[in-house]
Amino acid sequence: MPSNSDYNAMMRQWAILNALPKRPPGITAQALQGKLADLGFNVTQRTIQRDLNDLFRLFQFKCNEKGKPFGWYWEPGTSVSVPGLSIAEALSLHLIRDYLKPLLPNAILSSIQPQFQQAEETLKTLQSTNPFASWQDKVCYVAPSLNMLPPAINEPVLDTVQTALLKDRQLEINYQGINDQDSRALTLHPLGMIQRGAVNYLVATAFQYQDVRLYALHRIQSANILEASRGYKPEPSEFF
DNA sequence: CGTATCAATAGCTAACTTGT
DNA sequence: ACAAGTTAGCTATTGATACG
């Protein structure tokens, strides 16, 4: 298990590699210090110089020593491509996860689950040394409605709705409207999904009608995909 | 051309942190 | 408690530029 300082130094050096331009005259140690400071790595120019010298021995980049300050850049045709998350990527992923969750198909969501996990780990590890890692605790998205807690959506229902949407198939649902005593069965032609405030809606036409309506996902009791393809479909600009 | 000045790099050391 | 590693700070050196 690497120590926290090891990890921070490694992330800093990785940030340096990513900040190097791909052509001369390159970036100076001073400019690099500024860029790294913007990313939350507050170290001296001397440290950057040492990092550059260390990295120089390991990677294919160039140092323009002809004029001072030195310019550092990738040799044409080379650059670094390391699978991993920068602090910026980790923070962005972490922040968008909750808001995008209902709008992403489950298959897509689970395929990027490892990245979400890694984002969380990265932020946790950098929390004590990089101020950006704590940013997530300082901002919050509040839905423009009185009810701040998003209503619970039935996971299998969400999955079915997304699949029907993806495959352009009709959907049979049991829907309990806001004024309904009991749920009623509807055959829908799914068109899209909308997140409005804390509530997610399925955009669809019902039965043979052509008027577009919104169905709150948390009010769908159950959902089944039908064999039949979706019928009438207006342009997205007409229903979004 | 020689000198002064300034900025950047590089070497060294002390302080600090972390692992054993 | 100690060893090892990292970083900041100080300083010497080097190179570019301005000026007489």
UniProtKB/TrEMBL annotation:
Family matches, as InterPro entries: CBASS_pafABC_assoc_protein (IPR051534), WH_DNA-bd_sf (IPR036390), WYL_dom (IPR026881)
SUPFAM superfamilies, alphabetized: Winged helix' DNA-binding domain (SSF46785)
One family name in Pfam for this protein: WYL
Coiled coil spans: none
WYL domain location: 156-223
Regions that span the bilayer: none
Entry protein name: WYL domain-containing protein
Organism per entry: Methylomonas methanica
